[in-house]
Write a structure and sequence with these properties.
The complex is a heterodimer of chains A (328) and B (308). Chain A is mainly alpha-helical. Chain A has two domains: 28 residues, no CATH class; 237 residues, Orthogonal Bundle (MetI-like fold). Chain A contains 16 helices and two strands. In chain A, a hairpin with a 7-residue loop joins strand 1 and strand 2. Chain A starts with a helix and ends with a helix. The N terminus of chain A is likely disordered. Chain B has 14 helices and no strands. In chain B, helix 5 packs across helix 7 and helix 7 packs across helix 9. The longest helix of chain B is centred in the middle third of the chain and has 32 residues. The chains are: A mainly alpha (328), B mainly alpha (308).
Chain lengths: 328, 308
């Protein structure tokens, strides 16, 4: 960045009156003066400019707005840290992060663990016995929920889970378990787990695909040696497979953790944050402040906190991962 | 809802290029090489088949009920195949929400986004990966933000910006936003691919007097075209399935997307289960068709960045 800043005054004075001659503007060395600008710089300009305006500008505006009180109309009033202080005492804000934490478990940890297990089964248990086509077909089936629009998944799961004519409760009643045919989405105790069920359904395909590609990269000789020594499939999974796919594991955990903390649409389509605030998450909470209560400053503070947390988490995980990479 | 792959590392100069496309290697086993399944093998297969059936069960429900009559559903429940097949649910939903228009909106938004995002990311990646401009790490670091920032932290300024420039309730507001965010990701991925571009080819072309534009168009582009197409496939389907931005920026019915035709209007048109199923079927069919056409590309693309 330093040279961009250093170049700016020279350009300014040249533009302002053209009183400064070119050599005087660059007194540093003649060698510098003769060197041409890297011609490739032009190609980076559209992308960087667009990024700075659309993402940089918007994020900057959100951060600024988070220090104001504004209802979206008229002028924003600067209130300093007031929004952040209010946040700290806002029970719903903490609840929303608690729910985001639940989603980290059900959208990142559980699908990763299950996905690794299923991927290993498909790759070195099913494929060697029944052929690769069967395991590939199963992988594709598990992946299908990933490509369905979230609104469709939401509609389907609301229907599956609905208390009276829902498929799950109908089945439960038919097998004589009507006492556990509950109001899954309507009861604050279960709503977040009902949403979680859908998230597990959606996410598992992603980790299966990544882990299966990771497994295909591995050297099978170690596993074969262990097999000859009499290790069972599960022992090999625990002792060998698990350690060999660690790079994939950290990528899956990073991407899904970030995705879990960003959850918005599943909550919006399934519960609208309710019942009460039982499924409110930070993203939904800020959306709600923006467009329902029109406390734009407050919503911006929520969004800013979420963005900072996500950035810190991503940096930490990437660092850990790079260090792991260096050790290997 | 394909998760956006996160770049595995920010190092440009070392490490394998994530996009160079390690294809999903199928186990190359001939029939004779297969292990005998045995009882436990069959048992495990059964368990997995049941799991797979459970996973596609919601899709089964969608398909069978979309063609069912309401009394049929009441009488025989949701799991069975329809006794008489009706297309009324589907045609009703289609005309009620003007699905043709929704499809066209989605195609336009996703298509333009993919195209613009590819152009932007290719130009940026060209400067970084081939041109090795100074501060390339700064640029990439900046683009990292695009992965972590939630859309909620951008939505309100985008919303006011769109209003002030007259693009509110216009599909171009959504196209521009997604083209920029996705090109940040694309530039990131492509930069590491291009940084491994064979030096000899570049040198040979430069000696022949090729300028940067010539190099980009006749040397680099033809070689990375498959990678660009793969990225475009992803940009298309990500945009197709996007929810928040179209929800906020495209309030009027005439501009809504397929993904939104269900979410925002679920109570409006789809009170009874058979119409709900019909709506869901129409909503997921385009994505499903797209998936089956581009299955190999998509599955391979998901793993990009995952394998160092």
């Amino acid at each position: 960045m330093s040279s961009v800043l250093a170049a700016a005054p020279a350009a300014d004075s040249a533009a302002s009156g053209k009183t400064v001659t070119a050599p005087a503007a660059r007194p540093r060395s003649t060698k510098r003066a003769t060197r041409r600008v890297n011609p490739y710089v032009w190609y980076v300009i559209p992308g960087v400019l667009a990024f700075l305006v659309v993402i940089g500008g918007s994020f900057g505006a959100t951060i600024y707005t988070s220090f104001t009180s504004w209802n979206g109309l008229g002028t924003a009033k600067f209130v300093g840290l007031k929004n952040y202080i209010t946040l700290m005492g806002d029970e719903v804000f903490w609840q929303s992060f608690l729910h985001a934490g639940v989603f980290v478990i059900t959208m990142a940890l559980i699908p990763s663990a299950l996905g690794l297990f299923v991927a290993a089964l498909l790759f070195d248990y099913i494929a060697p016995r029944f052929g690769a086509r069967i395991s590939a077909a199963m992988r594709a089936m598990f992946f299908v929920p990933q490509i369905i629009p979230i609104t469709v998944s939401g509609v389907l799961w609301v229907w599956l889970l609905s208390p009276n004519d829902g498929v799950i409760n109908t089945i439960l009643r038919n097998i004589g378990a009507s006492n556990i045919a509950l109001n899954w989405l309507g009861d604050p105790k279960y709503a977040i787990w009902a949403v979680s069920a859908m998230l597990i359904w959606i996410q598992i395909g992603y980790s299966i695909v990544i882990f299966m590609s990771g497994l295909s990269r591995l050297d099978p000789s170690m596993s074969e040696a262990a097999q000859l020594d009499g290790a069972t499939w599960f022992q090999r999974f625990r002792m060998i497979t698990f350690f060999q796919v660690r790079p994939e594991l950290s990528v899956v955990l990073l991407t899904t953790t970030v995705a879990a903390l960003k959850v918005f649409a599943p909550v919006y389509v399934m519960t609208q944050g309710g019942p009460g605030n039982a499924t409110t998450v930070p993203a939904f909470f800020s959306y709600y402040q923006f467009f329902t209560t029109t406390k734009v400053g407050y919503g911006s503070a929520v969004a800013t906190v979420l963005a900072l947390i996500l950035t810190v988490i991503a940096i930490v995980i990437l660092n850990v991962q790079n260090r792991q990479g260096e050790n290997q | 809802m394909i998760a956006e792959p996160m770049p595995a590392s920010i190092q440009l100069d070392e490490g394998a290029s994530p996009l160079a496309g390690k294809p999903l290697k199928p186990l190359k086993l001939r029939k004779s090489e297969l292990v005998k399944p045995g009882v436990s093998g069959w048992l495990m297969l059964t368990v997995l088949v049941i799991a797979v059936l459970a996973w596609v069960f919601p899709l089964w429900l969608t398909v069978v009920n979309a063609f069912k009559t309401a009394p049929d559903l009441l009488e025989n429940g949701p799991v069975t195949v329809p006794t008489t097949i009706t297309l009324a649910n589907i045609t009703d939903f289609w005309t009620q929400v003007n699905f043709t228009q929704k499809l066209w909106n989605s195609i336009q938004i996703s298509g333009w986004t993919a195209l613009l995002a590819i152009v932007l990311s290719f130009l940026t990646a060209y400067a970084i990966g081939i041109g090795r401009i100074k501060f390339r790490m700064w640029v990439l670091g900046l683009f990292m933000i695009a992965f972590t920032i939630p859309q909620e932290a951008l939505i309100y300024p985008i919303y006011t910006m769109a209003k002030s420039v007259g693009l509110y309730d216009n599909i171009w507001s959504v196209i521009i936003f997604f083209a920029v965010t996705q090109s940040a990701f694309g530039a990131y991925m492509l930069s590491s691919v291009l940084s491994e571009f064979p030096m000899e080819i570049l040198e040979a072309a430069r000696i022949d007097g090729a300028g940067t534009l010539r190099l980009l168009w006749s040397v680099v582009l033809p070689i990375v075209r498959p990678t660009l197409l793969m990225l475009a496939t992803f940009f298309f389907i990500w945009t197709w399935n996007e929810f928040l931005m179209p929800l906020v920026l495209l309030p009027s019915n005439a501009n809504q997307t397929v993904a939104l035709s269900l979410g925002a209007t679920s109570g409006q048109y789809t009170s009874d289960p058979v119409s709900k199923a019909a709506a869901a079927l129409l909503g997921l069919l385009p994505s499903l068709i797209f998936f089956f056409i581009f299955q190999r590309t998509l599955l391979r693309g998901v793993t990009m960045g995952a394998v160092k």
